[in-house]
Amino acid sequence: MKANNEKIKQEFDHSIQLLRQKKIRITPQRKAVLSYLIASQDHPTVEEIYRDLKPQAADFSLATVYNNVNLLVDQGLVQKIVSSDGATHYDYPLDHHYHLRCRECGKLVDLFYPPLTEIEEFARQVSDFQIEGHHLEVYGLCPDCQDKLTNEAN
Fold first, then answer.
1. 89 shares its domain with 140
2. Phi, psi of 102 (to 5 degrees)
3. pLDDT at residue 55 above 80?
4. For the whole model, what pTM was predicted?
5. Over the chain, what HEC string results?
6. Which amino acids are annotated as binding site for Fe cation, given as ranges?
7. Beta-bridge partners for 88
8. Same domain, yes or no, for 100 and 137?
9. Residue 20 to residues 35, 44, 48, 78, 106: CA-CA distances in angstroms?
10. Which range of residues forms the domain containing residue 153?
11. 56-67 pLDDT, tens per residue?
């Protein structure tokens, strides 16, 4: 579940500040894409972002969305999630979390499990690595696909 409006505004302002510190131009399109990703709960693809934002501005193109999303990924603000079906989804991680992925329909759902964050400290201690992060994805069948497969079997 994404955070409330105040947290979203704080994250947006903080991200804009980080981009400005790196001398990255803040365009209306960049603001729109960033705001969309912060508020999104659905791990959208670039095409979904474009579809939802296009009605707001005539100067929005699919290439603009691609370029802005890639810049946000490069700056470490947005996480790129490549699914097994080849689709690429994007997530602005408001809180450290993991993902559940339905192996049937590809649906992505956030999973919060704070004890797993300790794995980075453990990994650092046993390996002397400088840990930069980790990623965990749990696969299975979502309730909708379970129901669909059960109904097909009957």
1. no
2. -80, 125
3. yes
4. 0.75
5. CCCCHHHHHHHHHHHHHHHHHCCCCCCHHHHHHHHHHHHCCCCCCHHHHHHHHHHHCCCCCHHHHHHHHHHHHHCCCCEEEECCCCCEEEECCCCCCEEEEECCCCCEEEECCHHHHHHHHHHHHHHCCCCCCCCCEEEECCHHHHHHHHHHHC
6. 96, 134
7. 82
8. yes
9. 16, 25, 27, 16, 35
10. 96-154
11. 877 889 999 999
Per residue in 88-129, pLDDT (tens digit) is: 999 998 677 778 888 888 888 888 787 777 888 899 999 999
Shared domain check, 81 and 33? yes
Looking at residue 29, its amino acid is Q
Q: Which residues are annotated as a binding site for Zn(2+)?
A: 102, 105, 142, 145
Residues 90 and 146 in one domain: no
Count of beta carbons in the 10 Å neighbourhood of residue 68? 23
